[in-house]
């Protein structure tokens, strides 16, 4: 079973850094190429750019939570949710 994981193409998990604007602020996000591929596909499915999609996710988190803790991890989990690997957890009413 381990060869399924260890035998994958290293390009999939190569870290890639992209620069973009989040709410008017320039920043860089570093994710593995496989996650960028999912984010690119999500954005394309909505007919928008990947930075636009990421900016909207960031804004929604700020609106919902008031702060963004570990945004790259949130993006990874969003990719897993979008790919059907991870089920979304409902947000408890506050």
What does this structure look like?
There is one protein chain. The protein is α+β, with helices and mostly antiparallel strands and 94 residues long. It has a single domain, classed as Ribbon-helix-helix fold. The chain is 49% helix and 17% strand. The chain is built from four helices and two strands; from the N terminus they run αββααα. It has helices spanning 2-6, 33-45, 50-65, 71-82, and strands spanning 15-22, 25-32. Strands 1-2 form a two-stranded antiparallel sheet. The chain starts with a helix and ends in a 12-residue tail after the last helix. The model has no long low-confidence stretch (mean pLDDT 89).
Strand content: 15-25%
Distance from N terminus to C terminus (CA atoms, Å) equals: 43 Å
Secondary structure class reads: alpha+beta
Q: How much helix is in the residues?
A: 40-55%
The overall number of domains is 1
Q: Major sheet: size, sense and barrel closure?
A: 2 strands, antiparallel
- Summed over residues and divided by their number, the pLDDT gives a mean of 89
Q: What would you give as the CATH superfamily?
A: protein bp1543
Low-confidence stretches: none
Specify Rg, calculated over alpha carbons. 15 Å
Oligomer: single chain
Q: The CATH topology, please?
A: Ribbon-helix-helix fold
Order of helices and strands: HEEHHH
Tell me the overall shape.
globular
| Strand order in space, largest sheet | 1-2
DSSP summary, beta strand count: 2
> What is the CATH-assigned architecture?
Orthogonal Bundle
> What count of helical segments does DSSP give?
4
């Amino acid at each position: 079973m381990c060869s399924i994981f260890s035998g994958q193409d290293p390009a999939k998990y190569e870290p890639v850094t992209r620069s973009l604007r989040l709410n008017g602020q320039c920043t860089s996000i570093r994710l593995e190429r496989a996650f960028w591929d999912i984010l690119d596909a999500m954005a394309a499915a909505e007919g928008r750019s990947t930075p636009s999609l990421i900016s909207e996710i960031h804004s929604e988190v700020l609106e919902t939570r008031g702060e963004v803790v570990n945004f790259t991890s949130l993006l990874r989990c969003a990719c897993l949710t979008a790919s059907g690997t991870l089920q979304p957890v409902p947000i408890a009413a506050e």
